[in-house]
Design goal:
210 residues; Methane Monooxygenase Hydroxylase, Chain G, domain 1; four-stranded antiparallel sheet; 9 helices
Length: 210
Amino acid sequence: MIRTREHLAWHVAGHAYAATMWGFPVHKLSLDGFTEADFRVRGTAQCLDPCTMISIPEWTAVPGPHAFAQGREALLSMAIAGPAVELLHRQIPCVVQNVEQFTDDWTQALKAAESLWPDEDLRRFNLDRWVTSSQSMYFCNTGSFFESVIPRLLDQGVMTGSEVQAAWDQMKAREAESNRKWLRTKSRPDRPEHPESLGKDFLIPREHWV
């Protein structure tokens, strides 16, 4: 699969979106990979892939099955998000056989899935469902995030965690404002919603109750 720098930018932005969504703060993004200096100062950050460095939140260390499952779901989502967003941008079907071509990401996704669903048939079913649902998961009301991240990555080659978080916050602010506008312009029904307030003619006779 031939890739351009723009394709890579969409891929990295996909990882960044999913990481932020799951509460794994982005430490740094770099289309050219990371330097030794980046690894020396990264602290608790870890590489999700060669271009995406994220910070691991404290809740992942909490003992118990809930935190374990949530952490594995997050890793699965973050691994698939990069290929999914790149494929969707390139108008290539987002299906398992295409995501599998991104070997490193798919290997991470499989490791997370094996922990969540030891049964092979169930794992195959859930992975297929997870991949095919990625279109709505990562492209529903997310335009402003990618509009901010992609040009900056292509122009500078890198983004700091604070810049990624600013793009996320801007997206959420636009989403909240859009919801407020929708609520303000929502047409009111001509009739009350509850049948009890409509009078006896609108009520179902007691003898017809199920």
